[in-house]
Amino acid sequence: MPDRYAMNQTRTFLLFALLAVAYLLFQQWEQDYGPHPPASAAATTQSSSGEPGAAPVIANGNASAGTAQLITVSTDVLRLTIDTRGGSIVRSELLQYPVTPRTKKDPNPAPIRLLDDGSTDYFTAQSGLVSADGAAPDHRAIFQAAQTSYELTAGQDALNVDLSWADASGMKVTKRYTLHRGSYAIELDQQIDNGSGKTWDGQAYRQLQRADRPAAVYSNFLQRISDQSRYGFFGAVWYSPEDKFKKLDFSDFAKPKEQPPTSQITGGWVGMMQNYFLGAWIPNAKEADSFSTTVINEETGKSHYVIRSVGPQISVAPGQHASSAAQLYIGPKLTDQLGAIAPGLDLTVDYGMLKIFAEPLHWTLAQLEKLTGNWGVAIILLVLLINLATFKLTNAQFQSANKMRKLKPRIDALKERYGDDRQKMQQAMMELYKKEKVNPAAGCFPMLITIPIFYGLYYVLRDSVELRQAPFFGWIHDLSAADPYFVLPVLYTIVMLAQQWMMPVQPGMDPAQQKMMKFMPLMFAVIFLFFPSGLVLYYAVNGICRLLQQWWMMRRADAVPAKAAA
């Protein structure tokens, strides 16, 4: 028993390392060998042209003849491409989020393209109207536009883009997109004017259609395994007040039990999510919609996945008009903004089971970044705050370790006395610990704080778009990516070795465990090569703080006997 207690700190460190290694291996296995969407889904209910067929209400849409054109719409944060076929948004460039970090050599890298009608990363936002017995423009109908380019000018806070459609019966539909300065939320209003001689009945729908995650190309193994974006969720999401936030991987689109509820949902939304970014249709908060998913098998054999929101029945008498409004969010997952747009939209910043740790860490880091203007400095300040908060707890750990170090000669004497009689040896050690008021398990308590912080901060760095490409100083241009020159992992390894040198091997440790302890710094060095540099920065600074505290405690403990002897 005492041997086991004396080894608590060592085994906790080993558990920490094994958990980290196991997590990396699991993520890599999921990426390489986990379930992937089938090339041809049995649940397919649409043709390669994209004609909706999953919901009967959309089954009668008719494609219009004519030539479509592309319209460019620019604001201070977005550059959109709208196809007049269907009035769909087929491309969106996030002007403030470059693909690669800005450097002196490349100060203006290309912006992230979230929506894209290209074949490799197909992702579009579509909308339309359907009617069982009347004319209605769906997402394949040809619309007309007054111009091919729109731009939000200086001093202008909002920009309207109108697309119009009409048929011979007198039915007219105008799609109006409204974009606002500094906003990634786009308003869509579908205005229906009934110039025919009979009542028009139909429904409005909005849907997102995208292909599966394209295969990433890496120049080397380190770049591949350190790319944290590979491990974030990629698929469909939705929210309803009853069921809250739900996710649906593309591989589960054919599973009936995994689908969103088809009942009328008021105050919900549907979306497609990936690491850092989100596309979501948000119906009017008072409108009752039904949600559904389906799969389109392209002629090339590649599947497209659709999540759709269908609105309630709309009736428009002759000579009257009606409208259907919704919002489309295309942009970064900024927690403070998403929550204000729609309930539950902020849940797309998905920290999973570690939300209880990750959210407070993110909030604290955000406040510190506001003070310093640098996320790396904010991480360092977070280390100092946590060390101040746990100062007494850490002191207790070092005091216990120091007492154990001083007891080593007496424990060695007990080993010689009792030899191979482990039961008597353990009893004698327990009595010695009790007499000297030593708690061998004291070293475990700081680790109970360290492990949740490790994983919580890992998810913050992986999933918080604010930390994407956040520079620190010098060679670190992206705190969410691995250290390109391995400086921080090496620094942390040196700190761990210094801690081992200052604190000799604990008494009662067998030779195998001693060897494991010697290899632990190297083990952590290898693990930290692949982690975000912001996380390694945290642990390097934390290790330095603990090393200084350990040195101070040992010097203070050694000074007391020397002073008493004098």
UniProtKB/TrEMBL annotation:
- Chaperone as a keyword of this entry, yes or no, is yes
Q: Which Gene3D superfamilies match?
A: 2.70.98.90
Q: Which gene encodes it?
A: yidC
Task: State the protein's name.
Answer: Membrane protein insertase YidC
Q: Which InterPro entries does the protein's record reference?
A: Membr_insert_YidC, Membr_insert_YidC_N, YidC/ALB3/OXA1/COX18, YidC/Oxa/ALB_C, YidC_ALB_C, YidC_periplasmic_sf
Q: What is the lineage of its organism?
A: Bacteria, Pseudomonadati, Pseudomonadota, Gammaproteobacteria, Lysobacterales
| Functional note | Required for the insertion and/or proper folding and/or complex formation of integral membrane proteins into the membrane. Involved in integration of membrane proteins that insert both dependently and independently of the Sec translocase complex, as well as at least some lipoproteins. Aids folding of multispanning membrane proteins.
Protein source organism: Dyella flagellata
This protein's UniProt keywords: Cell membrane, Chaperone, Membrane, Protein transport, Transmembrane, Transmembrane helix, Transport
How does the UniProt record describe the way this protein sits in the membrane?
Answer: Multi-pass membrane protein
What are the Membrane insertase YidC N-terminal domain coordinates in residue numbering? 71-363
Q: Where in the cell is it found?
A: Cell inner membrane; Cell membrane
Segments of skewed composition (Low complexity): 39-49
